UniProtKB/TrEMBL annotation:
<keyword id="KW-0788">Thiol protease</keyword>
<dbReference type="InterPro" id="IPR004134">
    <property type="entry name" value="Peptidase_C1B"/>
</dbReference>
<keyword id="KW-0645">Protease</keyword>
<protein>
    <recommendedName>
        <fullName>Aminopeptidase</fullName>
    </recommendedName>
</protein>
<dbReference type="InterPro" id="IPR038765">
    <property type="entry name" value="Papain-like_cys_pep_sf"/>
</dbReference>
<keyword id="KW-0378">Hydrolase</keyword>
<dbReference type="InterPro" id="IPR000169">
    <property type="entry name" value="Pept_cys_AS"/>
</dbReference>
<keyword id="KW-0031">Aminopeptidase</keyword>
<dbReference type="Pfam" id="PF03051">
    <property type="entry name" value="Peptidase_C1_2"/>
</dbReference>
<comment type="similarity">
    <text>Belongs to the peptidase C1 family.</text>
</comment>
<dbReference type="InterPro" id="IPR025660">
    <property type="entry name" value="Pept_his_AS"/>
</dbReference>
Length: 442
């Protein structure tokens, strides 16, 4: 062991005080903060919000104080289609409706995992992982597909936002308390050799408690409703007696099985052109399996561009907090010059950041444009879900170099894949550990 001595610290103090550049930087950083002092205005100049391909999307949505970005991003891709097809203005699908069913299904999925690991000690890594966060707001693309296929969607006017969907902290806190209590009871029943019938009866009673908690907090999801609206030409429309499933079929009409998740994870344990899934990751029991195809970044970006060129936006996941300016909406590797500010080297490869816990997917958004110069992407237009007060009325600009380093997932139509890529995706996937960074929820 090598301890720090007082003499060593005093030497560091004296060396710092003698460096006039560092003391000058100290004055600025102490007063203004690290990011404000390190921000590079040249990144704004190089990432202007002008794109050769720029899809019409309408106004951005706002997830507010919740972790529903993956849900907002998916619903936004649907909204883009509805705005054009039905000549709607400022239309949104209900995020609260999908949020309700996601919480409900995640509770049941948690019970499934708790029962499957009931023979393990609570100190095992798997059980400890489950109990750390029984459920949360985040999710993956295939999880949202499971919800849409089972529950459909509804207009926001039919099930508006609630206090607890817009600010989900208390809901998550008390729902997780309830689920941990349920985990205690389920594990006790297994330890006491309860019958499958007894366990199922108790599980259904627990799920009723979850439903009640969600209904009180978020409202009751509609089973049948009318859709009333005026289009851009002020024409009145009324569609009566719809169910969430029939609304999806009539107004969205997308076959979600036509889409696949592509990742870029250049770590040694994930060879390219292979498919992967994550153990214990999901929300709907017997729902769509979370599955990815790992491709090199050049192929990854080619698929995204193909879909944008066809006029369709692209759901994607990234590590949004890395080198991005929230207020001005610039995502660029040189947005902040922190290395020069502190005179340190922070360089890591993308693989090293994944392996050492420095980066993972933290946020999902939508690619709605790209700037192609000589057939090469220079920057990308990003629709966020943080409202209109950030970025350019809610839209961000992502440099192509930033995409290389901090974007991890896109969702594209199968038709854009080569036969070799499609075969690789459809092969039996390698199962990753529950805590693998590719299992991170946006």
């Amino acid at each position: 062991m090598s301890k720090i001595t007082n003499e060593r610290t005093q030497a560091f103090r004296e060396a710092f005080a003698k460096n006039s550049k560092q003391t000058a930087l100290q004055r600025g950083v102490v007063k203004n903060g690290i990011r404000a002092s390190a921000e590079n205005m040249q990144a704004h100049v190089e990432n202007t919000p002008v794109f050769s391909i720029d899809l019409a999307t309408g106004k951005v949505a706002n997830q507010k104080q919740s972790g529903r970005c993956w849900m907002f991003a998916a619903l936004n891709t649907f909204r883009h289609r509805l705005l054009t097809t039905f000549q709607l203005k400022d239309f949104e699908l209900s995020q609260n409706y999908t949020f309700f069913w996601d919480k409900y299904e995640k509770a049941n999925y948690f019970y499934e995992n708790i029962l499957n690991t009931a023979e393990q000690s609570v100190t095992s890594r798997e059980v400890a992982f489950l109990l750390q966060t029984p459920q949360q707001d985040g999710g993956q693309w295939d999880m949202i597909v499971s919800l849409f296929q089972k529950y459909g969607v509804v207009p926001k006017s039919v099930m508006p936002e609630s206090s607890n969907s817009s600010n989900s902290r208390d809901l998550n806190n008390y729902l997780n308390k309830l689920l941990r209590k349920h985990a205690v009871l389920l594990r006790q029943m297994v330890a006491e050799d309860a019958t499958a019938e007894e366990i199922q009866a108790n599980r259904e009673a627990m799920l009723q408690e979850v439903y009640n908690l969600l209904a009180i907090s978020l409202g009751t999801p509609p089973a049948v409703f009318d859709f009333e609206y005026r289009d851009d030409e002020k024409n009145y429309h009324l569609d009566q007696g719809l169910t969430p499933q029939s609304f999806y079929e009539k107004y969205v009409g997308i076959d979600l099985d036509d889409y696949v998740s592509i990742i870029n994870a250049p770590t040694d344990d994930k060879p390219f052109m292979k498919s992967y899934t994550v153990d214990m990751l999901g929300n709907v029991v017997d729902g769509k399996q979370v599955k990815y195809l790992n491709l090199e970044m050049a192929e990854f970006k080619t698929l995204a561009i193909k879909q944008l060129e066809q006029g369709e936006s692209v759901w994607f996941g990234c590590d949004v907090g890395q080198s991005s300016t929230r207020d001005s909406g610039i995502m660029a590797l040189d947005a902040y010059d922190v290395e020069d500010l502190f005179d340190v080297d922070l360089t890591m490869t993308k693989a090293e950041r994944l392996d050492y816990g420095e980066s993972m997917m933290t946020h999902a958004m939508v690619l709605t444009g790209v700037d192609l110069i000589d057939n090469q992407a220079k920057k990308w237009k990003v629709e966020n879900s943080w409202g209109e007060k950030v970025g350019e009325k809610g839209f961000f600009v992502m440099s192509d170099e930033w995409m290389d380093e901090y974007t991890y997932q896109i969702v594209v139509r199968k038709e854009f894949l080569t036969p070799e890529q499609l075969a690789a995706f459809e092969a039996e996937p390698t199962v990753l550990a529950p805590w693998d960074p590719m299992g991170a929820l946006a």
